Amino acid sequence: MSAPAPPATQGRPVRRGATLAAACLGVMMTFLNITATISSLASIQADLHIGNTALVWITSIYSLAVASLVLAAGTAGDIVGRRLVFVIGVGLIGLGSVFAYLSAGVALLLTAQVVIGIGGAMVLPNSLAIVSHTFHEPHLRTEAISIWAGCSGVGLAIGPVVAGALLGHWSWHVVYVVNVVVSVLVVAFALLVVQESRHPDKRLDPLGVLLATIAVAALTFGIIEGASIGYLSGRILGVFALFVVALAVFVIVELRHPDPMVNLRLFRSPSFSTVMVVAVVFMFGFTGCALLMVLYLERVARLSPIDVGLALLPMFGVYVVVSAIAARIVRRLGTTLVMTVGLVVSAGGAFLLLAAGTDYAYAHVWPGFAIFGFGMGLVAAPTTAAAVVSVPPQQAGMASGTVNMFRQLGNVLGASILGTILTSRFTSELPGELAGNGVPAPVAAQVAAAASSGGAPSSALPVSLAARVAESVGSAFTTGFHTGAIVAGVVLLVVAVPTALLVRQRAAVAAPAPPASAPTVLDAVAAGESAAATGESAVAVSAVAVGAGPAVVGTVRGADGTPLAAAVTLTGPSGEQIGRLSTGPDGTYRIPVGAGGRYLLVASSPGRRPHAETVVVGDGPVCHDVTLVGSFAVRGRLADESGRPVERATVSLIDAVGDVAAVTTSAPDGTFLVDAVADGRYTLTAHHPGCVPVAAGIEVGHDVVDAPGHEIAMVRRARLIGSVVVAGSGRGVAGATATLTDEQDRVVATAVSDEHGRFAFDDVASGTYTLSTRGYDPVVQQVRVEPGRTGSTHVEFPAPDGRAVPLDVVPAEGGRPVVH
């Protein structure tokens, strides 16, 4: 059962805007934590006396928690309520920040980052699903998603500035107080403005969650720890083997699960798979390069925390601006071109970072920062929007969870791989740099040991020796920075190639194909396009070797990929029945045919929309998989402006191609119910002889909303009658033209007076109008029509001798006439 989307009312835009603001504040918190923590690393390392490996773990363990749990959190939101899970997630971010504030050692800080990561995993998919649920119109949804994605950039941008401002006066602990304060505000705001929504048919997949967590954790652990103990060591090889096994079992479990955490069948589409790769690479480059930039500015340029934040503003500022307008750019140029250009530009920005040297000069680095941020801004919003609109609406939680899982996986890999490249290259280059600058071996060993743990031994050395040590450390660190930037640029550039070749412009959805059309598979995704409006066939046809002789074989599934028990009938060119059967438990069927040719396949299942498709059979079997979309009910209530029910109104559902899908009549209490409606987007219209027709866009099968139906406001019509006479004589004027104009100067109706000078306007909406009457000399007056009432007015033309006679009009408040 599905309720229609609330129609547009005067209060709806405000509610939508407030809901978007709450979701954006939540996502800003999750990304602010990333860059604020990165900006605090130097202070944390100096205070807690930890090595570089532990330092990488502080940033990576947060993303590890998010990547491991984001899909499960999205499914939990679908089941128990997206607002509820969102609010709990924001609360956990605040709670984890309290733990971080109280941390006196690395163990509690890592625990705090895990708690914050769990909260972030709950916030990210559900904030996006809330936005997707709130904005039903395709263009508005894409705009909203772009704003949502842009706010992630705002969080990334203000993180270094906020951290720098606080670190200039207090310890790194105070940085986490920001999340505590903001979380309290966001929880209160969300409970006030966000409407609860859910998809209760979803089920959790605890085994999938466990396997995904093991796989991601094993991969991350192997990457980070392998840098210090060796990637070919038995321990690391064992961890990587665990990753492979956990991933393989995860795939098997998800393919067999009736309601999987990840619908792996979506990855059959090269376009969708490429979008997920872009999501990984996007955060890989963004987070990894941000870490490199912060460490370079702190360790080589030796900027203060606040100066580091300000120095990074060109990157984050440009990113925020570009990601905010990316949706409009996509509508002009297309998703593929924008994402490809964004990746190439980002790679160019990463390569420009090679201009940074040991002798720091801001003029050498800010162009690379700005260009990198520009490219990242072009990639962010299109990637997110493409993932959401590439699946049916009821899978919004899974889609948003999937894209966020891959983005957070990229977050983990970016911080761990690029951070590891930086530290390992720095460690390997430092001895040679020290020797080359004439630093004695004992001092060089001491410096290398201290540098790997974040120490600064040069402060206790003679001035001349300290200068050579500082130069050596800066040169080795810059080499590591350059290596990381090169790796990031190459990865971004390489991924641009499949993006240009495989990502298409239209969204792939599970929707019925037009009858008798050639089967196609449109597997591309595009930001800003309505999935339900693509008219895409959900049938894949390919020749396969299944048995001998001509036959039609395949599988019948629901929109979520679950096998269905269905009746399948095959008819010949003249309508004769060739075969009929019921699918097996796995949804499969096989109908032999006597010879090749064109056949009509019809599949049906209780509670779902029947599907018909023309199949061309050759000499062998043809595989014809069918997706049946669900059948739902639409309910609501019609009421006039005073809240009274509107009965016997005609309610129609018009589909995306303009056909009337269903019609019903409202009951005496104004309620209506339309049964057996296929999922998709419709225009709901309501018509009543005594009311102004209304229309609203709805999305069937998207959600079950808590409210028991939705009230649609209808404005009752009124009637205006009048007479035109000659002043003084009272004689009616025949043939006078009366024109009614609304407050926007639009002509509403025109009438001509009869032989007695009378005229009438039927079916007029309530409101204030300008009545212009032409006969002798024109007469203009204002009238007000009350809803559901018949008003009257009286017009007097000046006498033929030119003597004007006052109009017999009752003055209203403010001197305006009133129609009674």
Q: Taking all residues together, what is the mean pLDDT? A: 74
By DSSP, the count of extended strands is: 24
How much helical structure, as a percent, in the residues?
40-55%
Do you know the CATH topology of the largest domain? Growth Hormone, Chain: A
Number of domains: 5
- Which CATH top level class of the largest domain fits? Mainly Alpha
CATH architecture of the largest domain: Up-down Bundle
Strand content: 15-25%
Q: What's the shape?
A: globular
The major sheet is characterized as:
4 strands, mixed
Low-confidence stretches: 1-13, 506-547, 702-709, 802-820
Structural category is alpha+beta
Please count the helical segments.
Answer: 17
Name the CATH superfamily assignment of the largest domain.
Answer: MFS general substrate transporter like domains
The strands making up the biggest β-sheet line up spatially as 2-9-3-6
- Euclidean distance between termini CA atoms: 46 Å
Pfam family, one: MFS_1
Enzyme class: hydrolase
Organism: Pseudonocardia dioxanivorans (strain ATCC 55486 / DSM 44775 / JCM 13855 / CB1190)
Subcellular location: Cell membrane
Concise overview:
It is a multi-pass membrane protein. This protein has 820 residues and is an alpha+beta fold.
Give your account of this protein's structure.
By secondary structure, this protein is α+β, with helices and mostly antiparallel strands. It folds into 5 domains: 12-205 and 259-502, MFS general substrate transporter like domains (Growth Hormone, Chain: A, Up-down Bundle); 206-258; 539-628, Immunoglobulin-like, CATH 2.60.40; 631-714, Immunoglobulin-like; 717-815, Immunoglobulin-like (Sandwich). Helices cover 49% and strands 19% of the residues. The protein has 17 helices and 24 strands. The strands form 7 sheets. It has a 4-stranded mixed sheet with strand order 2-9-3-6, with no helix packed on it. It has a 4-stranded antiparallel sheet with strand order 5-4-7-8, with no helix packed on it. Strands 12-11-14-15 form a 4-stranded antiparallel sheet, with no helix packed on it. A hairpin with a 4-residue loop joins strand 22 and strand 23. Helix 3 packs parallel to helix 5, helix 6 packs antiparallel against helix 14 and helix 12 packs antiparallel against helix 13 (335-352). The longest helix is centred in the middle third of the chain and has 41 residues, at 396-436. Residues 1-13, 506-547, 702-709 and 802-820 have low confidence and may be disordered.
